[in-house]
Amino acid sequence: MNSSHSTRSAFLTGVFFLAALAATPALAHNPVASCKAVGAEKVLCTGGFSDGSAAPGVTLDVISYDEKVLLPGKLSQDSTLEFKKPEQEFYILFDAGPGHVVEIDQSEIAQ
After folding, report:
1. In this predicted model, what pLDDT tens digit does every residue of 46-99 receive, in sequence order?
2. What does the domain layout of the chain look like in residue ranges?
3. Residues near 72 by Cβ (< 8 Å), separated by ≥ 6?
4. CATH placement of domain 31-108
5. C-alpha distances in angstroms, 15 versus 5, 6, 9, 32?
C-alpha cells in the first residue's frame, strides 16, 4: 500500500467519523418546574430538567406583575426553594439560561 492511499484512507475515515457525530441528534434537556402551596403562607417550588437531572443553584425568582423581583432565589442542593407567599400578585420565573425558562403564575400553584 502506498503512502498516498494510506493518507486518503485515514482522511476518509476521519470525514465519516465527523459526519456520524454531526448526524447524532441532540438530547432534549428542557427545564421543568412545579410549585405547590405549603399551608396558607408558603410555597415550595422544585426545578430540574426533562432528562431527570437536578438543578441546584439555578435561578428561581418570585416576581410581581409590575416586573419587580420580590424574592431573588436559587434552588437548593435538592433543587427546591420554599418561600413565604407574597401579599401581592406574582409569578415564579425558573431561569436555567437562554431558551431554558419556565414561568409559573400564582394561579397555577397546586393547593
Report:
1. 999 999 999 999 999 999 999 999 999 999 999 999 999 999 999 999 999 998
2. 31-108
3. 59, 61
4. 2.60.40
5. 15, 14, 10, 38
